């Protein structure tokens, strides 16, 4: 999803277990237990350490866990409000597909080309993931995770004759998506609901295509996000993740450099994003779940014309008046758009596609 208008990291997964015990180690002839609480800091404890100290450390860990949950709820609220305010503007100027387009890097394009490029993005993602169009193999049940106003959901349902369910944090988006589905005669094929991608309201193994187009960047816990995508996927299902990432780190790097972190922090503040991760991080998460046929690609060069075009549309008379009427959250997002261009030009931001298959 395009974070300028669409719903829903230094490598940091907001993944805070209450306790995590490591094996006892021997140091200087004294057995020492190494206990890591949800603060992430180890507590070295001799056998003589009092239970009171352990309890105090436990309470500190619980306090951090509560704070983390509060931060996650604040993030969800911010994302929902951001898209509640901005989705109408996006649809008015760009139509119902709230994501990047896929372009010929050497082409010059107009607004109509951008809309065609957004459809091409969907088709190229399906082609990359080798989603079959054969009658007996094509998807019959699809989930669109972070559906915006349902552009991808309706397109996929029409293309495959499938049933598609879209989820978003924005009540405004869900309502508008359903209205557009009804207008297109798809109300019996497509449905939308307000739901959290990290806690999806679906049984295990429900969908044979799990689709996430530009929503992963909003997820505060990438591990839980990927686990949920895999959980709702049926045996043999295809999972497609198209998302913003930061560059992969080299073997000699522990993190991004301070200037890179500073730039991403500014973008996070404007678009309600948690910490970023790399494409390689996603691949490792998928590998940890024993998913198959995992592959990834950097499509940054194919989306290069997109952000300059969005900036241009925002600076039009219609764009400026719409921004003023929409409220501060949308205005702040528009002001941060040049930072996305800067991030792409510096090779810091990567437009990644990752696809895999759940074992039969």
TrEMBL record:
UniProt-recorded Gene Ontology molecular function terms: methyltransferase activity
GO CC terms of this entry: cytoplasm
Organism: Cinchona calisaya
Pfam families with a match to the protein in the record: Methyltransf_11
Descriptive protein name: Methyltransferase type 11 domain-containing protein
Source superkingdom: Eukaryota
Domain Methyltransferase type: 143-241
Keywords: Alkaloid metabolism, Methyltransferase, S-adenosyl-L-methionine, Transferase
Pathway terms, separated by semicolons: Alkaloid biosynthesis
PANTHER family: MAGNESIUM PROTOPORPHYRIN IX METHYLTRANSFERASE, CHLOROPLASTIC-RELATED, METHYLTRANSFERASE
Ranges where the record places region SAM motif I: 142-151
């Amino acid at each position: 999803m395009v974070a300028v208008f669409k719903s829903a990291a230094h490598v940091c997964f907001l993944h805070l277990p209450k306790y995590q015990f490591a094996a006892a180690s021997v140091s200087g002839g004294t057995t020492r237990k190494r206990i890591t609480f949800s603060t992430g800091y180890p507590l070295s404890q001799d056998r003589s350490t009092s239970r009171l100290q352990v309890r105090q450390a436990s309470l500190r860990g619980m306090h951090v866990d509560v704070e983390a949950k509060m931060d996650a709820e604040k993030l969800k609220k911010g994302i929902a409000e951001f898209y509640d305010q901005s989705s109408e503007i996006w649809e008015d100027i760009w139509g119902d597909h709230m994501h990047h387009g896929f372009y010929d890097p050497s082409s010059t394009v107009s607004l109509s080309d951008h809309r065609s490029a957004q459809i091409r993005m969907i088709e190229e993602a399906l082609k990359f993931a080798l989603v079959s169009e054969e009658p007996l193999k094509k998807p019959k049940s699809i989930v669109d995770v972070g559906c915006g106003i349902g552009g991808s959901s309706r397109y996929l349902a029409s293309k495959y004759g499938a049933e598609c369910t879209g989820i978003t944090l924005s009540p405004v988006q869900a309502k508008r998506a359903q209205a557009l589905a009804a207008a297109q005669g798809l109300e019996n094929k497509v449905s939308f609901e307000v739901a959290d991608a990290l806690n999806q309201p679906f049984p295990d193994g429900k969908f044979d295509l799990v689709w996430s187009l530009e929503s992963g960047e909003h997820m505060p816990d990438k591990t839980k996000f990927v686990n949920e995508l895999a959980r709702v996927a049926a045996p043999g299902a295809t999972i497609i993740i198209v998302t913003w990432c930061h560059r992969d780190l080299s073997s000699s790097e522990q993190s991004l450099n301070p200037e890179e972190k500073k730039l991403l922090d500014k973008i996070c503040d404007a678009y309600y994003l948690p910490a970023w991760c790399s494409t390689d991080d996603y691949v490792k998460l998928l590998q940890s779940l024993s998913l198959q046929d995992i592959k990834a690609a950097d499509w940054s060069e194919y989306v290069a014309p997109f952000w300059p075009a969005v900036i241009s549309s925002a600076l039009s008379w219609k764009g400026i008046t719409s921004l003023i009427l929409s409220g501060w959250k949308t205005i702040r997002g528009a002001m941060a758009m040049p930072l996305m261009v800067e991030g792409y030009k510096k090779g810091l931001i990567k437009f990644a596609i990752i696809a895999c298959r759940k074992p039969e």
